Amino acid sequence: MSTNPDVANAIAAAGRDLNSRGLLASYEGNISVRLDSERLLTTPTGVHKGRLDPGEMVVVDRRGAAIGGGQPSSEIKLHLAIYEEREDAGAIVHAHPPTATGYAVAGKELPRAALAETVAMFGCVPVAPYGTPSTEALADSVREPIRTFDVVLLANHGAVTVGADLEQAVERMAQLEHFAHIALVAHLLGGAHSFSPAQVDELSRLRQSAGAGPVPSACYPAADESGNITLTRKELVGLIADAVRRIR
What is the pTM of this model? Predict the structure, then answer.
């Protein structure tokens, strides 16, 4: 396991990266890394994430109490809840990527089964119900979706990503915002065209070949999203006959 100074330097670098990419601004957002089964290292509260000093990072225990001084992020409850639900999580990033957060604020889900890379990497991106920032309500709102998904939008708030390590959590936040940009352009052009269930099955096999789990069933297109309608031969003949009669 890396030493605390190594992890603190990595968190500071991640904060600068997220800030420079426009995935968070000024004092918003927070980052944490699991040190071991009993401790986390997290960003402090009220500090500009583009100007983090590694020496400011705060070690907290499993209850969120600071060990050795400092005040942890106000969203420490959110981080603790996610680590409880995801034993495989090595790091968490909470940020407010503007386009993706726009979807969360508008109460609109990002399209399911619409971009091959997103299906293969994330499956899809659920929206957790609104909870007041820094409260148990917010922490509890994300427990159910984070059990299945690595990327979750927070209604009227922002987004959270988990990763096996810090780099993966940061890159998932960047990938989320990239997908949200694409989804918005598709919306402006008339709407995203969803894959068929068979096409999602194929992407799911690719996902599993890379060592991930299958695409969750919730990520398959709804009946009215794929643009495909299935008819029997009899139904099709009936529709054509009816159309001919109407023309006559």
Answer: 0.87
Which among 28, 75, 85, 171 is annotated as catalytic? Answer: 75
Q: Which residue has the tokens 């969120």?
A: 64
Query: Looking at domain 4-188, does it have CATH number 3.40.50.300?
Result: no
Tokens of 42: 């997290």
Q: Where are the domains of the chain?
A: 4-188, 197-247
CA distance 176 to 104: 12
**CB-count burial class (<10 Å; 0-12, 13-18, 19+) for 188:** exposed
Whether 109 is a known active-site residue: answer: no
Give ∠ CA 161-162-164 in degrees, rounded to 5.
150
Considering just the CA atoms, what is the radius of gyration of the chain in Å?
21
Structure confidence by residue, pLDDT tens digits, 184-217? 999 999 999 999 999 999 999 999 999 999 999 9
